[in-house]
């Protein structure tokens, strides 16, 4: 009798210990596609996207998958050029099981793939932020990030109302994102009464590393502030070269200037840059903080979370939500339509709500780089979530 | 256009742009010198020159920050690595093709090597850009104005010293003259007992060292990353502008290209590439042998 | 002078007659059979994605063919294919999508694009061929950089960094390709046209003049070949082919940007031509196919893809500088030589395994 009781206790003990080892009994699978630069010159962005997607997959599957089905991901490498990116997105769209996917982080490639998305009638979460993406009026293309026309407005407000610039110089990357955001910022500044002179607009080629000639001209002109619009690596180089040149103008940067790559590369040189950022790991909103901490936990030893990672993560979470709303994981059309019902959904990067231009984000962060951290100053909203 | 001229004529800006241009020109000159040496020894352009510069930047970064060697130890260790790279590069890219009468094959081979070197660097050191501290921190000041970063000045000085040393090697030292002989006529040189394989290897080692030092100098300013290789196109422009067969020409041509690039930023920041290469085409049209080259018929 | 030419032609014609040997017949039959099989069976076994990649490789073939005219037939390495692809592409884009206020029929515009690229190539060639050999190659690199810079920055005609989107597909008598499978057949027609054109040129005086310039410029000059004019005409033909490829690309992808017309892409075309056998049209076809499809086939080893590619190129140049076509020819010769001591009387143009370039 005693023996049986011991055995019973042991059995219960084993069962309890084994519980975590039993995964949920999933009732099938649902596949989500993801395109990222997994090789080539933009590989660091690709690593962030991959990490974000995998983290979202982990969280979703831990909570029982989507409608009881296990979430599977299929990745494709968009390398670093237009044709390869379009190839990757086309390939993902043509997988029989994929019902939605995360597209390129680069706006120009998203626009190039738009007609193919339309033909395939499949939901794409574009990773780019250009205001030209909604102009395609593609019912299947959605943006999680704030579009550049809104960012431009926020940048202009920060420049004039918080910093007080009256005659800024703008240094931007000659590329779809850069020229787009620059145009929007200049237009917004004009509406706020600040005219940016033609000669104070400095464009640079995408693979430029030599900013000293431009910085020389900026510093020797009569501008009272510098606005930087760029990708992560040039942002880092600009910060470093500007500091080395001894710039003492107020500095306002786009999202990348507050990014992990820029801060960890430029270190002290990145300090002092104010930013209108999509993301900072020091965010204080509950959903944001949860993401930032679980990312840090999951990817110990790797750099902190950055914008591409959060964008990918939130896209996948929104997809899961849309499936729940539509109560299906196979009807692509229903899932796409369900995205219209997203309202005040708390994501890591922002609170998401449907808008006619298919852009979900309602806010960005105002940050200041201090001691190599992007300190959150404020959350600025462009509309009611 | 007019506005660009008004910018250029401001003395401070002009001086800063000039120093900047000369510093960049020095980097291009280091690569260009390597290119010329290879042309004279082998007869083809090396499309992996930029990648050699990049590899040099990575190797010196690795030795300083990963192996954590102090500067006096780092330099000889780096030289050793450069020599190794030079020999490997020669054996992979040049040696098997040395008797091939299809020069385009060697050119393509260097393109393949460029790709391979880029990927090896990415696999070994990862995708994020790496930071190298400048050898000399700080900025040269005159009164209250910051004129130029010390690192740029150091680049100019070290570049000039290296170029001078290589020049001395070829013009004055016996070893240099042997190498020139082997380059001009391999068959005759071998008849004279000159070991051409050694001279070719020595050439490659010098070329790799020159480019790698350029990478080392420029890394603190541009960050150590795989896109550093794109600088080689300017070096090509420098070689051709200055005059194809001439080492002096290559150096001066590169300096000119560096200056043109720097000054052109006063007029346009985005059409910079177009300006630099238009200058190249124009020079070639009016003086096909380059500015300092000799009128020697090109090898068909 | 004309006597010399006549006797030249006579000799070459005689030699040509005797060169129709067993190998040539075998090659023609085999290639035609393979091509028909390719054209008929491929669309049955491929999905939309693979079809798209195949279509792109067909377009790349046309551009690489232009390059092989310059390099294989003429012995001049030119990187300028992408520049003229750009002119063709932007010409088509601007005149068919309505951004300049006009939206004309695609086919006439395509013809216009080819002509425009040809004229532009003629002008550039006239200027650039004042230089020779490696200087010329450098000048073409310069040309590529200049045009790339314009394509990236000039908003009015090139859309700046945003590129040009919304380009309509090709339309012939009211019919358009519905999907990539239909496009495949449309492109095959152009591929055949381009291939026949180049083969035709190879057998005309232009082709022979080019070959003589390639093999020995000074001797060619003594035979009365106008080197400068020959090279410029070849460059124009190459430019026209590249323009055609560019126009087709614009209509196939419906979006173009300066990203496609970079120096790196130019080197890819050179590799395509060299891989297949730079002087052999079928070789260039195979080369274009392989180089375009390889990154897709090798996706499993993603991270090591470019490394394998780079090392592969080095080995290719070491062991097979005349490309796959050269390898094929060598195998065929060995095979046929075993039969009855039949000797190959004269090397045709295609059989040359390199020689001085």
Report on the architecture of this protein.
The complex is a heterotrimer of chains A (385), B (300) and C (357). Chain A is α/β, with parallel strands linked by helices. Chain A has 13 helices and 14 strands. In chain A, strand 1 (29-36), helix 2 (43-62) and strand 2 form a beta-alpha-beta unit. In chain A, helix 3 (82-93) packs parallel to helix 4 (107-120), helix 6 (148-163) crosses helix 7 and helix 12 packs across helix 13 (332-338). The termini of chain A are far apart. The model of chain A has no long low-confidence stretch (mean pLDDT 88). Chain B is an all-alpha fold and 300 residues long. Chain B has one domain (2-286). Chain B has 12 helices and 2 strands. Chain B has helices spanning 2-8, 11-42, 49-66, 71-94, 103-125, 150-171, 174-184, 186-191, 196-222, 232-242, 247-264, 272-286, and strands at residues 139-142, 145-149. In chain B, strands 1-2 form a two-stranded antiparallel sheet. In chain B, strand 1 (139-142) and strand 2 (145-149) form a beta hairpin. The longest helix of chain B is centred in the N-terminal third of the chain and has 32 residues, at 11-42. In chain B, 54% of the residues are buried. With 357 residues, chain C is mainly alpha-helical. Chain C has one domain. Chain C has helices at 2-18, 22-45, 48-73, 81-96, 106-128, 133-153, 155-158, 180-203, 205-215, 217-222, 227-253, 263-276, 281-297, 302-319, 323-337, and strands at residues 164-165, 255-256. A two-stranded antiparallel sheet of chain C has the order 1-2. The two termini of chain C are 27 Å apart. The model of chain C is unreliable at 1-19 and 340-357 (pLDDT under 50). At the B-C interface, helix 5, helix 10 and helix 12 of B face helix 6, helix 12 and helix 14 of C.
What is the CATH first-level class name of the largest domain in chain A?
A: Alpha Beta
| Element string of chain C (H = helix, E = strand) | HHHHHHHEHHHHEHHHH
Largest sheet of chain A: 7 strands, mixed
Shape descriptor of chain C: globular
Assembly of the depicted chains? heterotrimer
Note the beta-strand portion of chain C: under 5%
Into which percent range does the helicity of residues of chain A fall? 40-55%
Amino-to-carboxy terminus distance of chain C: 27 Å
User: Distance between the terminal alpha carbons of chain A, to the nearest Å?
Assistant: 65 Å
User: Would you identify the regions of chain C where 5 or more consecutive residues have pLDDT less than 50?
Assistant: 1-19, 340-357
Approximate helicity band of chain C: over 70%
